[in-house]
Amino acid sequence: MGFACALLLAGWLAGWGPCAIGASAPAEQELVVWLTYRDRGLEAAFRLFEREHPGVRIVTSLGAGPTGMDPQKLITGIAGGSPPDVLIQDRFMVGEWASRGAFLPLNEWIDRSLRREQRAIDAQQALERGNADAARLALEAVIESLQPVGPGRLLSLAQDLRDDLLAGSPPTELTGAAATLVSLCQGVHPDAFYRACWEEASWGEGVARRVYAIPLSTDVRVLYYNEDLLEKAGLVDASGRARPPANWQELKTYAERLTERDATGRIARLGFAPNYGNSWLYLYGWLNGGQFMSQDGRVC
């Protein structure tokens, strides 16, 4: 199961400003985030965001049900006019909610982030060349893009760099701070994500297709095996080391040889657990060349 951050119509996107274009951020504001799980990394990121954006306080809530974000809770929040600003949503459900108009397309903010990053890079490169005027113009563009977001570390850094240039500081002495600005202005690059994850977080056909969520994770399935038990059962290579099964027939053979039963015939040790963890029938179907949907995704 993959997760992706999705933005609702009422919300912010972290670091990219309020939805009302050109609106200034209020002195104090709550950013409501619904989670499907508690995570130390996310909590640390939230606290860092608060430090870098004075006046913004992140309020988290678990909006999860047994299989992810509780759809009843979410749709009730939307219908009641009190949805979360940002939520973590199962990626495979993004299209369903986007088709209902519940999520805000993010393309404009993604493009904005890339333009801001490029202006920061332009400023850094101009400073490296010693061109103070070009660097200042690029920094002004960064500042203009950040002002609607309100006070924050990024805005302060860009303003400090510009003011240092106006005060006559040698451009080459400011390249270190400019490099920090570039790293903090990192945009959302679609090609930095696995294509399948990015497409799963998008919805629409042709030119109308839009991005509605930013993938934050993906996962894989692996086969774990106990080397000691394989060696004990003689399932080894030419050097006597445990050898995992190489095909489906070998997997069946291994499962039978590794399974042990007690005196009553009950299984004491299972040779292979096909549904252990997040591993289900459709995965085995795909691994054997099966398909569950037509190519156009319209027929199951």
Explain the overall architecture.
The protein has 300 residues and is an alpha+beta fold. It contains 11 helices and 11 strands. The longest helix is centred in the middle third of the chain and has 23 residues, at 107-129. It is elongated, with a radius of gyration of 26 Å. The two termini are 20 Å apart. Residues 7-25 have low confidence and may be disordered.
What distinguishing features does this structure have?
300 residues; alpha+beta; five-stranded mixed β-sheet; two-stranded antiparallel sheet; 11 strands
Can you describe this structure in just a few lines?
By secondary structure, this protein is of the alpha+beta class.
Distance between the termini: 20 Å
Main beta sheet: 5 strands, mixed
Portion in helices: 40-55%
Which consecutive residue ranges, at least 5 long each, have pLDDT under 50? Answer: 7-25
Number of beta-strand segments: 11
Structural shape: elongated
Note the total helix count. Answer: 11
H and E string = EEHEEEHEHHHHHHEEEHHEEH
Beta fraction: 5-15%
Question: What are the SSEs and their pairings?
Answer:
Blueprint: E1 3-7, E2 29-35, H1 40-52, E3 56-62, E4 64-65, E5 68-69, H2 71-79, E6 86-90, H3 94-99, H4 107-129, H5 132-146, H6 153-166, H7 175-184, H8 195-200, E7 202-203, E8 210-211, E9 213-215, H9 227-232, H10 248-258, E10 260-261, E11 267-269, H11 281-287
Parallel strand pairs: 2-3, 2-6
Antiparallel strand pairs: 1-6, 1-9, 4-5, 7-8, 10-11
